[in-house]
Design brief:
about 300 residues; mainly beta; nine-stranded antiparallel beta sheet; eight-stranded antiparallel beta sheet; 2 helices; 23 strands; binds 6-O-phosphono-beta-D-tagatofuranose
Length: about 300
């Protein structure tokens, strides 16, 4: 597939839908603004840093005021693309959450959708930086739909001559009024791995509430989870596809203080509900096979 690398000097203006811009840290990003929503997508990491429907007074995604904005550094917040491993399950000494979220993705194009939304496509191939940690040829596509909802599809293609097994996540950070006042519904009855209790397997009864640092991999979780925010009187639906696990995380006080790119008091304003292939939910692709890990995020 020919790669179209958009030169920085040619702001792309797709019928007023989107343009190439310079974001924080002078990083190249794509500003999307259509009649339905606005979004900011960074080539660094293929990272959706902002999404806000026109009819919502607040952003849907949370981003830290302390985030790094440097090429090759993960952005704290938005939707990090974690691939080809989740967490610290990669090779010894490799970066957490894989190589994709710190790689420079390239622009493949944009188009206007029939409903007035905007479709954006980015790509990442196995390049020198990736081969340092991941020796299997691959190609990734990130296809975004920015409209009444935000749709994110990570399309993985195994270009290796051998089968490859990967884990990962669309590690979505959501903006909430107060993590202590929200609940996550839709995971009732699911078993989960408690990452903070020696990976003990537990059962979720009732909605998930945040009362302390929370770091769980829910297994066989259903298609949709809802973040019910009484403070802002909104409910965010997180509907996934191609994923058999959901990660729920809030760092709470101590972990927030340990992260240099996370404000000490920011933990109250966010929670993560991540669309994952994590833990036992790894994905194995034969030579030439592909898989789509996708999520649709919508404010009810
Ligand atoms: O998804 C939850 C988690 O794996 C937590 O354990 C925490 O490490 C979080 O991801 C953020 O990871 P990062 O490498 O971005 O600091």
């Amino acid at each position: 597939m020919p790669r179209t690398i958009l030169a920085m000097s040619h702001p792309l203006d797709l019928a007023g839908h989107c343009r190439l811009a310079t974001g924080p840290g002078d990083l190249p990003c794509i500003h999307v603004a259509n009649d339905l929503a606005a979004a900011e997508i960074h080539l660094n990491g293929g990272h959706v840093a902002h999404y806000q429907p026109r009819n919502d007074a607040r952003p849907v995604l949370w981003t830290s005021g302390r985030s790094h904005w440097e090429a090759g550094q993960p952005i704290r917040g938005g939707i990090p693309v974690c691939w080809p491993w989740f967490g610290d399950s990669g090779p010894e000494g490799a970066p957490a959450h894989g190589i994709a979220r710190t790689a420079r993705w390239h622009w493949l194009g944009a188009s206007a959708l029939a409903d007035g939304g905007t479709r954006i496509e980015l790509g990442l191939e196995d390049e020198a930086g990736a081969r340092r940690w991941w020796l299997h040829p691959f190609s990734l596509r990130l296809v975004l739909g920015v409209g009444h909802a935000l749709d994110v599809a990570l399309q993985v293609r195994n270009r290796a001559a051998e089968a490859v097994t990967w884990t990962g996540a669309l590690h979505s950070y959501f903006a909430v009024s107060d993590a202590r006042a929200v609940r996550v519904e839709g995971l009732e009855g699911c078993s989960y791995i408690d990452r903070l209790d020696h990976d003990a397997v537990k059962l979720q009864t009732g909605p998930v509430r945040f009362r302390a640092e929370t770091d769980r991999i829910y297994r066989d979780s259903g298609a949709t989870a809802w973040i019910v925010d009484e403070g802002w009187k909104r409910r965010i639906a997180v509907t996934k596809r191609g994923s058999g696990s959901t990660v729920v995380w809030n760092p709470w006080v101590a972990k927030s203080a340990r992260m240099p790119d996370f404000g000490d008091d920011e933990w109250t304003g966010m929670c993560c509900v991540e669309t994952a292939r994590a833990g036992e939910d790894a994905c194995t692709l034969g030579p030439g096979e592909g898989h789509e890990l996708g999520v649709t995020i919508a404010v009810d």
